[in-house]
Every structure is written in C-alpha cells, then in structure tokens.
Amino acid sequence: MQFILGLRSKGITDARVLKAMESIPREAFLEPTFQPRAYADTPLPIACGQTISQPSVVATMTIALELTPRCKVLEIGTGSGYQAAILSRLSRRVYTVERHRPLARLAAKRLEALDLANVTVITGDGSLGLPAQSPFDRILLTAASEDPPANLLAQLRPGGIMVLPVGQSDMLQTLIKIEKTDTGIEYSELGEVRFVPLLEGIAEDIA
Ligand code: SAH
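Structure tokens for the assembled complex are given below, as produced in the milestone run.
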C-alpha cells in the first residue's frame, strides 16, 4: 500500500493502472538480494547485466498505452517480466520478446507462478517485432533505440499506440507515444527516461 501511495505522490493517479500494480508483487521478479528494495521507486539489477525498470516509469508507460481488455500487446525487452505482468492484467493477450534466453526463461517461470496465463515469452530479436502474431493493438519497447524501428511500426494496427524510449544509448532518452491513425502518425513526448539500448540479435549467454 505504501508502494501505491508513493506512486500517487509522484502524480500517478490512473486507478486501473494503480490497481494492476497493487496486484503484482514486484519482489517476485527480483533476486533475493534485491527483494528488500522491491517497493522503492528505483530500477534494480537483474540477471544478464540488465535492469528492472523503475515502478513510476512502468506506470507512466502503462498509462500511455491506454490499454483495454481487448488489446493484443507486444512488449520488446521482457527483462524480469514485471512490466509484462502489469500489461497482462489490463489486456487480452501479451507477447513479450527478450534477447537473453536466461531472462526469458526466468520471466516465463515467474509469470506462470503468478498464474498470468495470457502472457507468452519469446526468446528473440525484438527489433524485428513478432511478424507471426502481428498486427498488434499496442506495442511497448522497454529498450531504447535512436529511431522508432520501422519493423515495429509496420506491425502496429491502425488506431494502435506504441510507446518507446528514443535517443542514444547511455544518455537521457525521451519517452514517446506514437498513435497510428488512418491518415498518418501522431507523436507526443512523455518526459525523460533512461533505458538500456535495444541491441540486435539474440544474446549468446553461457548456459
Ligand atoms: N521490461 C523489463 C525491463 C527491461 S530492461 C522489466 O519489466 O523488467 C530491457 C531489456 O531489453 C533487457 O532485458 C534487454 O536484454 C532487452 N533487449 C534489448 N534489446 C533487445 C532486442 N533487440 N530484443 C529483445 N530484447 C531486447
């Protein structure tokens, strides 16, 4: 509850998103060492040198997606699986793609343990999107690219929304929201964020 009050104090008021976040234990997506800090509004390290995003950033991105219970959603950058868990509470179907196989496996296990059966975790290069399941109503990138990847934009349904951090790696990036209309594309900026870069190819992790 302190967690939700903390998010509220940062100006996050969307009741549906707060309820979804209240229903998902963030500590379940962390290694034991970091579990005591699960409800602080901070990013934390996860396996493979990656990070679980800051809760207020998770909330901001989720709100920007304007999810409905009919949405088919694609997330690129599964990481811990926490963001995917939140998305799963607010949409019909979630596909999430991760380039590190160990992270994808662990995330799938955690999501299953929480009975979140509408999420599918895929090991792959998310910069290619997921053509087999496209088009998507919503697309979320949780890794930064210099420009919105054309592959992903093409897999977004007209009327759809895509949210992503754009900018150079290792620098502050801008969170942007793209709305695909029948006549074109509308952009809006949602503030500054810092994400790991979107890298190409599947990572070669040692088993
Ligand atoms: N959404 C995550 C945090 C994302 S961290 C969470 O809730 O925990 C960003 C993740 O994007 C990292 O795990 C990184 O490995 C992954 N990533 C980077 N480039 C990728 C790509 N091309 N395809 C799939 N995943 C990618």
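The first strand starts at residue 44 and ends at 45. The mean pLDDT is 96. Further analysis is deferred to the final report.
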